[in-house]
Amino acid sequence: MAANMSFNQLFIFCFANIFIINTFLVGVITATTEPEVIFEAAFQGECRVSGPCHQLCFDLHDGECRVSGPCHQLCFDLHDGTFECACSSGTLDNNGYSCNENSLNGVNSTKNLRKVLRNKQLFVGKHIENNLLDTNEDQLEELSAQQKHIYYSCADIECEAGGLCILDERHLDKRIRCRCPLGRGGFFCEKPVEIRFPRFRGTSYLALPTLRDAHRSMQINIEFKPEHYDGVVLYSGEQQTLEGDFISLTLNQGFAEFRFDCGMGDGVIRSDMPVVLNSWNTITIYRDGWTAWMQLNQGQQISGQSKGLFSRITFRLETFLGGSPNISQIAKRVHSDNGFVGCVRALQINDRTYDFRTDNRGDTIDGVDIEMCTSDICSKISCLNGGQCVALSADRGVCLCPLGFAGDYCDIETDFMIPSFNGSSYLQFPGLGRTFLSFIEVKVVFKPRSPNGLFLYNGDRMDGSGDFVLLNLIHGFVEFRFDLGSGPAVIRQGILQVNDETPVTAHSYGGFSQLSLSLNLFVGGVPDFKDVQRNAFATNLFSGCIQSVIVNNRPLLLLEEALSGVNVVDCPHHCNGQPCLKGGRCEPQLDSYLCHCPLKSFGKNCEKGIDDLDSSPMFYGNSYFEFTSEEIMKRVIGSKISIHLRVRAFSPEGVIFWTGIRESTGFSDWFSIGVGEGFVRLAFDLGSGEVETVYNVSRIDDGQWHDIHVSRHKREAQLRVDDNIPYKAISPGSQIQLNTKSGLFLGGLEDTPIQTYNKYKRGFIGCVSHITLATDYHIKPMTEAIRGINIRSCI
């Protein structure tokens, strides 16, 4: 077992090196005749990788691939102090070392290579793993073809996007490569790349903006992972040659050195310990005038000072990270003629945290030869079901799963009633746009798992400017920020209230008072903080559950209305167990729930039934009947209507009778009877303007039965309560017909604030009986309604 494990590790290592070094191919021509692979003899010695072993080296036991050796193409260590040569293309020469090229044997090197491997398995038995032999044709074809395309002349390649042909510093055989400009990658610079965590290769550099407000004092924090012990990490100064004022951070034989010159000679601070190669290191530097200190990782703070009495540094150059456009110009001053080799995942100078992206969200000005430090992270992660791997950091990747899937690899189907967010999640909805120009009211029910995190954001622009609103948790406190265009503040005349605490108010600055939010609305987080307005000051995503979001009395349907989402799963709650029987709908209410029971059932879990279908129904503020029959609707719509009903009200507010088009633009027809402040209200709109009358002779919210009579003929309507005198109302304009298509609702609606255009906040609380239309049609709600929710018999 140990031998097999060693072989696997060594084989993968050699395969990976060949794959990386030789990355390009033109094609492989296939032939119908497969050449025979001949093994002539075994020789004393060992295999070696670059040299006579021209293509592949396979150690078959506990030997190892070395640097030079006798074989022209394939070399096999036979673990007994001998080796054997073979050919992946051509035939083995009689000398047992060389390969003779010919048209027959050279045309099918992929199949030949496979046969070599199979024959060697027969020869040395268990020392070749089956997974190697199961490598598919495409992989072997690519591997074989890659060996053939190593370029040694710039005349043979054309670098794209302004790339420059140079010698490849990784090899000593004078092969060449393309040196790519910032934002491009691939052998020919043919691929656009986004840089978040840059990797420098010794010939690279990034140019960042000139330092501001750093002439007198500055603090530098940098996190980096070096691969070599020497190189320029960071520098800036007054002149290109660094004559005069400058600062620099370099690695010298593994030790960090900070140099700074205020104009009369440089001071040098050297770390008390070396950096750790191939691991993340942190350096903190603080300078105040001519004195400074530096700390590497958990080491000591080493102090020093520059020469002379000058205490200010003039910065006119850009800030260069990882190297220089001309390393020879600065080598004498920084005491290094090598660029940095390794990765940088964070750089902060004073209050500025740098973003290494190349678009308008980033801080980079220029650069060359920059790779993504995370380029191989997602190659090891396979996200399923449309998931996408992204690098959360320079050494951690995560699958962003679309709605409906969850798990580390998006391999688990899921649905949610209450969305749960994990710190990398978000839901995306249509933005608020310009529908809430001067007034916005937001109510969110949430349960956080972390004291920090943005959980609602809507902006206007993606360049870090423009209007925005957000809700954010900071150290356990809720913060409501917004910007109307004149600076961040709380909404004008706005109020922030958490639970039952005292409301907090604030005012925005400047003369602007309207919001424009053209981008999408995000709940639970955002895809990228660089798309968030710079005055938002948000740095963490929300972790926890969000039960409901209500904007201006309109509930946001978190599942149905979401445009997209990432890494959202279901939050544990009683409703997940589907406690409501007979098709009832479970509505979460904090840590409890409410069942909305279908017609003819009631109870906490809809477990009870209504036996007397002729009894008067009782409504609870979240109840309603819906009618759509032709016999009913022809007596409601048109140029006239007559309604009589008896009501017993237990609340001063609520809609009793409603017909109208859902989510109207404000110009559609509607007709309503309700209770407001204890008085009966009649209101309607025939399409040419709204009219309302309030019967304020006597209140009806006394728990007693009252008669309501309503009639309308064309534009004129009358309202009478009990035996009192009638009140009249006349519709403006010339329209005389009521045209509605949504049916008739009694006692409430499915979404009362939305469907009544915020004229009523909730449904009726009380009983209704003796419902008569046009003096001759008596409605039996328990049997005629197509739908009824939360209805019980009147008490």
What features would you describe in this structure?
The chain is mainly beta and 795 residues long. It has 6 domains: 2-146, no CATH class; 154-192, Ribbon (Laminin); 198-372, Jelly Rolls; 378-413, Ribbon (Laminin), CATH 2.10.25; 419-570, Jelly Rolls (Sandwich), CATH 2.60.120.200; 617-793, Jelly Rolls, CATH 2.60.120. The protein is built from 9 helices and 62 strands. Strands 11, 13, 18, 19, 20, 22, 23 and 25 form an 8-stranded antiparallel β-sheet that branches. Strands 48, 50, 55, 56, 57, 59, 60 and 62 form an 8-stranded antiparallel β-sheet that branches. Helix 3 (109-124) crosses helix 5. Mean pLDDT is 79; it is low at 1-44, 48-68 and 102-148.
At CATH level 2, the architecture of the largest domain is Sandwich
Strand content: 35-45%
Number of helices: 9
Please state the average pLDDT score: 79
The SS-based structural class is mainly beta
Instruction: Specify Rg, calculated over alpha carbons.
Output: 38 Å
| Main sheet overview | 8 strands, antiparallel
State the shape: elongated
Domain count: 6
The counted number of beta strands is: 62
CATH fold-type name of the largest domain: Jelly Rolls
N/C terminus separation: 80 Å
> What is the CATH level 1 assignment of the largest domain?
Mainly Beta
In which range does the helix fraction lie?
Answer: under 10%
* Stretches with pLDDT under 50, minimum 5 residues: 1-44, 48-68, 102-148
GO cellular component, one term: membrane
Keywords: Disulfide bond, EGF-like domain, Membrane, Transmembrane, Transmembrane helix
Pfam families: EGF (PF00008), Laminin_G_1 (PF00054)
GO molecular function: calcium ion binding
